[in-house]
């Protein structure tokens, strides 16, 4: 809404009052015409512009045509070429509507600019565009010159449509999808041929999508019958199973289109997107179906597709080979989508450093191409790599930024996945309210759209929260439910990830029969991919299921493997469990060392529940609480989320502003601040400012 209202809260309030229920819930795109968006506000602005002298209005029209929807930066040259007198701008400045600068005209707000353009006659607007087109003759300015020529057209023109189409191609190649979208859309409106119009609208919709304007893309795709683009939009903001079906159908049709045989990469990309839909749903049948289509058409697709199908069927050797091949294709400057698949493959192999490299390169490649919509997709998976490799605050900050970008670009399904990831991070940080709020929001959205991955991840987050707070029976029940959920409700990859947690919960509740079988499958995978972290967790499971000296040896094996792995948080949890086992065996000195090491790591991670368990074990050894606490700084006393909120509050942000920035409710922020005050033993924000100032010093 803010994008449609040009960031003006007055227009946003007016827009909200006229939207239909499907528009309010995001099922239909917002209206496009300014007169529909904020008619009352625009009416007032038009009156102000009409009150100005004619020469002033002409200059404002020229400036408005130069700035939107494409910034061409040709106003001053046009003024010189048209031999226009700029003194009448004094009247606009006196009225507070605009003022002149060395770079051109600055309007009071976007709606004043819109009013300046719309109050002019059609003839005057065409004249302004002709003048701007005439002066845009520099190097690299031809796409913008074509735009103004198209904007000045009286009606359909095959010649102008062709010129604009070529200009759109040039802009697209230069990494300017927003400009390409405007040019292709204008070419479509000027094209006299219905078939050409549909094709150009499809190109414009794709460009709008890549520029991050999802609403515009949805409006434009309504003028086409493009299954591929419809499937892509459904993948990012609709039902994942419907998206898969549409993308697979489009792949088959494109591969059989003789006119497009020279573009084999297009079919590869469509099947890659279908792969993502299958990953989101967690549906083995769809994975097999897509793999069969790839084989039949002779299309080489990201190995994550075949790997998922193989892993789901227990063919772990085949899965490993496919994942290793995909993870190896992560060189700089590559295709962002394929780099994201490399990152996903690396994550599945337990190579978190490789995953971080691939996803960072994917985001960089997307930015260099102006592909705003792909950046948060890369950041989705970068957050996992940061978290597991011991950078929890970086993971949380990155996931929050990706969540904002996902919402801004209309990728609600990606936002759902990020909400689930943030629920997991909150569980680790001990933020129960945030964990439950995010998990509930993500799971509710995911179940309505067949998104098995975030639905399962949300349940996993809640199970981890239960486990870390000693609710072992509740944790085990959630994880058993997760194992039984089918496509759209659960996900085998998350079930696999949760196995070490399930074994731990089962041991505490004495129900190890199913846990033994689950561990056997997990161990099979760990030995196949040879990931040090997976092997370490498998050894930890073996230790939990053993007793006495056998358990000690398995714990030692686990820690040796953790030493060459990257999952620092899991290493700390292994040390906690090992320290507790050593305490029960009355090996006090080694138990104390392990527990102190675990406590230090948990304080670094900002995981108070796990830290509390370590302190409890140390107290059982006779350690005084102060000695167990370590450095008593703010980072140790607050969770990561509390510390972030405290800093924002100390900087003067209101609860509502903090809630907006973190995409949480004001009530949750209020609860967190009360917790901050209690933990720091203070009563006001003034004391908080003082404490944070001392902490920085």
Average predicted local confidence, pLDDT: 88
Number of strands: 2
Global Rg: 29 Å
Binned strand content: under 5%
Counting copies of identical and different chains, the oligomeric state is single chain
- Give the CA-CA distance, first to last residue: 42 Å
CATH architecture of the domain at 391-453 and 462-633: Alpha Horseshoe
Strands side by side in the biggest sheet? 1-2
- Helical content class: over 70%
- Alpha-beta classification: mainly alpha
Low-confidence regions: 625-632
Please tally the helical runs, counting DSSP H or I stretches of 4 or more residues: 42
User: What kind of sheet is the major sheet?
Assistant: 2 strands, antiparallel
Q: Which CATH C-level class of the domain at 391-453 and 462-633 is it?
A: Mainly Alpha
* Cα shape: globular
CATH third-tier fold name of the domain at 391-453 and 462-633: Serine Threonine Protein Phosphatase 5, Tetratricopeptide repeat
What is this structure, in a nutshell?
Among the domains are: 237-380, no CATH class; 391-453 and 462-633, Alpha Horseshoe (Serine Threonine Protein Phosphatase 5, Tetratricopeptide repeat), CATH 1.25.40; 640-696, Arc Repressor Mutant, subunit A (Orthogonal Bundle), CATH 1.10.10. The protein is 74% helix and 1% strand. The protein has 42 helices and 2 strands.
């Amino acid at each position: 809404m803010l994008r449609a209202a040009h960031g003006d809260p007055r227009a946003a309030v007016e827009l909200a009052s006229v939207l239909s229920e499907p528009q309010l819930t995001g099922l239909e795109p917002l209206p496009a015409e300014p007169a529909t968006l904020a008619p009352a506000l625009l009416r007032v602005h038009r009156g102000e512009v009409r009150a100005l002298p004619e020469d002033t209005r002409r200059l404002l029209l020229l400036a408005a045509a130069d700035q939107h929807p494409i910034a061409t930066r040709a106003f001053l040259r046009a003024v010189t070429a048209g031999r226009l007198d700029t003194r009448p701008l004094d009247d606009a400045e006196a009225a507070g509507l605009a003022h002149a600068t060395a770079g051109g005209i600055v309007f009071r707000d976007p709606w004043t600019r819109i009013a300046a353009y719309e109050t002019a006659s059609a003839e005057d607007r065409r004249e302004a565009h002709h003048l701007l087109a005439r002066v845009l003759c520099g190097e690299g300015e031809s796409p913008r010159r074509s735009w103004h020529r198209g904007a000045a057209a009286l009606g359909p023109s095959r010649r102008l449509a062709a010129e604009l189409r070529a200009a759109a191609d040039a802009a697209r190649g230069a990494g300017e999808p927003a400009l390409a979208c405007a040019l292709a859309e204008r070419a479509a409106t000027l094209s006299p041929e219905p078939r050409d119009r549909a094709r150009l609208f499809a190109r414009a919709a794709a460009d709008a999508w890549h520029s991050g304007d999802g609403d515009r893309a949805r409006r434009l795709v309504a003028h086409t019958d493009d299954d591929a683009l419809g499937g892509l939009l459904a993948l990012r903001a609709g039902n994942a199973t419907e998206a898969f079906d549409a993308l697979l159908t489009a792949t088959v049709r494109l591969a059989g289109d003789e006119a497009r045989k020279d573009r084999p990469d297009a079919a590869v990309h469509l099947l890659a997107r279908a792969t993502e839909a299958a990953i989101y749903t967690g549906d083995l049948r769809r994975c097999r179906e897509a793999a069969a289509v790839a084989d039949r058409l002779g299309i080489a697709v990201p190995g994550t597709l075949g790997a998922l199908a193989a892993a789901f069927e227990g063919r772990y050797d085949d899965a490993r080979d496919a994942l290793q091949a995909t993870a190896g294709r992560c060189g700089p400057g590559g295709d962002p989508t394929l780099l994201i698949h490399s990152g996903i493959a690396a994550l599945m192999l337990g190579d978190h450093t490789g995953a971080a490299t691939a996803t960072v390169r994917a985001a960089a490649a997307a930015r260099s191409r102006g592909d705003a919509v792909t950046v948060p997709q890369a950041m989705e998976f970068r957050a996992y790599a940061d978290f597991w490799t011991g950078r929890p605050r970086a993971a949380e900050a990155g996931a929050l930024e990706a969540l904002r970008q996902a919402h801004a670009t209309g990728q609600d399904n990606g936002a759902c996945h990020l909400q689930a990831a943030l629920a997991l991070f909150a569980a680790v940080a001990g933020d129960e309210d945030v964990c439950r709020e995010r998990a509930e929001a993500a799971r509710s959205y995911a179940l309505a759209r067949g998104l098995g991955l975030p639905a399962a991840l949300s349940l996993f987050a809640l199970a981890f929260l239960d486990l870390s707070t000693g609710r072992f029976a509740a944790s085990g029940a959630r994880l058993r439910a997760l194992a039984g959920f089918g496509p759209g409700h659960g996900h085998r990859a998350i079930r696999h990830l949760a196995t070490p947690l399930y074994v731990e919960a089962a041991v505490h509740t004495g129900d190890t029969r199913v846990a033994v079988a689950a561990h056997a499958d997990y161990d099979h995978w760990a030995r196949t991919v040879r990931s040090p972290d997976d092997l370490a967790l498998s050894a930890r499971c073996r230790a939990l299921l053993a007793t006495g000296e056998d358990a000690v040896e398995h714990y030692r094996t686990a820690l040796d493997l953790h030493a060459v792995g990257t999952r620092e948080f899991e290493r700390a949890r292994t040390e906690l469990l090992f320290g507790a086992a050593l305490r029960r065996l009355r090996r006090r000195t080694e138990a104390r060392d392990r527990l102190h090491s675990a406590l230090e790591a948990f304080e670094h991670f900002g995981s108070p529940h796990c830290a509390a368990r370590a302190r409890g074990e140390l107290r059982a050894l006779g350690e005084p609480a102060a000695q167990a606490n370590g450095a008593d700084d703010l980072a140790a006393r607050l969770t990561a989320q509390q510390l972030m909120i405290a800093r924002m509050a100390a900087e003067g942000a209101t609860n509502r502003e903090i809630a907006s920035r973190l995409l949480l409710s004001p009530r949750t922020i209020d609860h967190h601040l009360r917790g901050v005050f209690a933990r720091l033993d203070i009563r006001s924000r003034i004391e908080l400012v003082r404490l944070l100032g001392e902490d920085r010093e």
